[in-house]
């Protein structure tokens, strides 16, 4: 996998730092040799993490497909029971994220990420054998606890390997691979439903059993292939040697001078919460996640009940909007990295949502409403890597980066709680409450980004020491 040509100022950043060992490590390789090393990192790091994230998204959102495939009747999901099942996942998902970003640094990414993947795969198999709705409720809590560390851990790990203006493409490809789950899970689920009555299990139960087994297999592969932090990765199954590890670390040191973590101190770690921009980034994540999860959990239901597509049509028509979102996500990331911008991309994506959601919610023609689904899905998904990269570009320090990743994804979990409750059965077939809430979240994103861009531009013009580093500039 190759992610294209990197700008020279991203590959050899700030080589006049005066740090001779850093310069020597960077200049040890020609640009062509350096590019080969980075592409090797791409293939190993981004691809493996993306595949496991695909399992994560598939396992947390497959209840939406199972619901219209018979789970509602078998588990007597009357009233708000389905919404509660979706919602409870996010309570442990939010609570366990801050300690998870500390544990990944202490335990190491390879062991930590692969272990939690296997554990949530095991719990996923259990979903196929529940007999009452409250049993599924308990399993969703367990699933949320195990999945809590994966996404913030990956966001943190990726940020330690790449310079600031290489990162959005990598985040986009990571999320693109993961979001394939939302596009393909409908088609896969339709095939699994045909296994109904095999082994005396309903078709919707096979969705959980088979996808849980797939997750366990990927988790075992992750134990072999996930790499640790760059300063430790020369021991990761000969992925890179010590000289190449020094080269990676030196690039990060030249870019933002935070390649090596300071000793952990709880008071110092928590004091990062005093930085208001961290909570501004968290608001962006909350707004984006509300849209992303609302679409992921309820798109099959909207297509089936609101646009009157058949079960087969519904399972197949969930894929095209995610394919379009993946294309926009990657192209916008290439543009953003090339031109060193973040905020305008997020605003443009949010505006797509402000166009697509009214088309979906207020018009009558099913074809136009389905086009609105495309715009809303593109908006929600393309902003995930853009938001993660926006905060990563404007934060320095390993533990501050870890805290920010946890707060960002924790806020996204709260967005998941909101997104899981706003599309209610009693609002069918128009789901006006869900449409208004998701539109409001896109408006919130636009306002917060404009405020951040204004603040960053003012501080950049003022100059001086920013984020503890002379010459550091915020990315707009």
TrEMBL record:
Question: Does Transmembrane appear among the keywords?
Answer: yes
Which domain of life does the protein's organism represent?
Eukaryota
| Any Pfam family hit | MFS_1
Q: How does the record say this protein sits in the membrane?
A: Multi-pass membrane protein
The record's section on SUPFAM superfamilies has: MFS general substrate transporter (SSF103473)
Keyword terms: Membrane, Transmembrane, Transmembrane helix, Transport
Identify the PROSITE patterns for this entry: MFS
Intracellular or extracellular location(s): Membrane
* The keyword Transmembrane belongs to this UniProt entry's keyword annotation: yes
Cellular compartments per GO CC: membrane
Please report the stretch or stretches of sequence annotated as the Major facilitator superfamily (MFS) profile domain: 45-458
Example GO molecular function term? transmembrane transporter activity
TM ranges are 82-104, 111-131, 137-159, 171-193, 205-227, 278-299, 319-336, 343-362, 368-390, 402-423, 435-454
What name is this protein filed under? Phthalate transporter
Q: Which organism is it from?
A: Hyaloscypha variabilis (strain UAMH 11265 / GT02V1 / F) (Meliniomyces variabilis)
């Amino acid at each position: 996998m190759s992610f294209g040509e990197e700008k020279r100022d991203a590959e050899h950043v700030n080589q006049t730092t005066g740090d001779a060992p850093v310069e020597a490590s960077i200049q040890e390789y020609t640009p062509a040799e350096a590019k080969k090393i980075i592409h090797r990192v791409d293939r190993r790091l981004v691809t493996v993490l993306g595949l496991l994230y695909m399992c994560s998204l598939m396992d947390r959102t497959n209840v939406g497909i199972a619901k219209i495939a018979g789970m509602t009747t078998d588990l007597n999901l009357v009233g708000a029971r389905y919404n509660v099942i979706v919602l409870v996942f996010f309570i442990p998902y939010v609570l366990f994220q801050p300690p998870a970003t500390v544990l990944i640094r202490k335990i190491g990414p390879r062991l930590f990420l692969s272990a939690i993947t296997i554990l949530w795969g095991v719990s996923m198999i259990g979903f196929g054998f529940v007999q009452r709705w409250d049993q599924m409720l308990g399993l969703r809590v367990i699933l949320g606890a195990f999945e809590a560390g994966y996404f913030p851990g990956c966001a943190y790990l990726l940020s330690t390997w790449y310079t600031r203006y290489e990162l959005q493409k990598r985040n986009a490809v990571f999320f693109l691979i993961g979001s394939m789950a939302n596009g393909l899970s409908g088609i896969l689920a339709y095939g699994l439903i045909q296994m109904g009555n095999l082994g005396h299990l309903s078709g919707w139960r096979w969705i959980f059993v088979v996808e849980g087994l797939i997750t366990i297999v990927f988790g075992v592969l992750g134990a072999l292939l996930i790499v640790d932090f760059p300063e430790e990765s020369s021991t990761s199954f000969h992925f890179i040697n010590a000289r190449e590890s020094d080269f990676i670390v030196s690039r990060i040191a030249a870019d933002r001078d935070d390649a090596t973590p300071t000793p952990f101190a709880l008071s110092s770690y928590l004091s990062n919460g005093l930085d208001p921009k961290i909570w501004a980034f968290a608001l962006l994540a909350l707004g984006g996640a509300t849209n992303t999860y609302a679409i992921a959990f309820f798109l099959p239901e909207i297509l089936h009940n609101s646009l009157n597509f058949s079960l087969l049509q519904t399972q197949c028509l969930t894929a095209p909007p995610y394919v379009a979102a993946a294309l926009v996500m990657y192209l916008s990331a290439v543009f953003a990295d090339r031109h060193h911008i973040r905020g305008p991309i997020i605003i443009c994506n949010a505006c797509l949502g402000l166009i697509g959601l009214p088309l979906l919610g207020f018009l009558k023609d099913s074809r136009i409403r389905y086009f609105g689904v495309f715009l809303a899905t593109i908006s929600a998904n393309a902003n995930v890597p853009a938001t993660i990269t926006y905060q990563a570009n404007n934060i320095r320090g390993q533990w501050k980066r870890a805290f920010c990743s946890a707060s960002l994804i924790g806020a996204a979990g709260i967005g998941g709680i909101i997104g899981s409750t706003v599309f209610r059965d009693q609002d069918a077939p128009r789901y006006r409450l869900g449409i208004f809430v998701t539109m409001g979240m896109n408006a919130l994103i636009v306002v917060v980004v404009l405020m951040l861009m204004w603040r960053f531009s003012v501080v950049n013009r003022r100059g001086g020491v920013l984020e503890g580093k002379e010459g550091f500039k915020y990315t707009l």
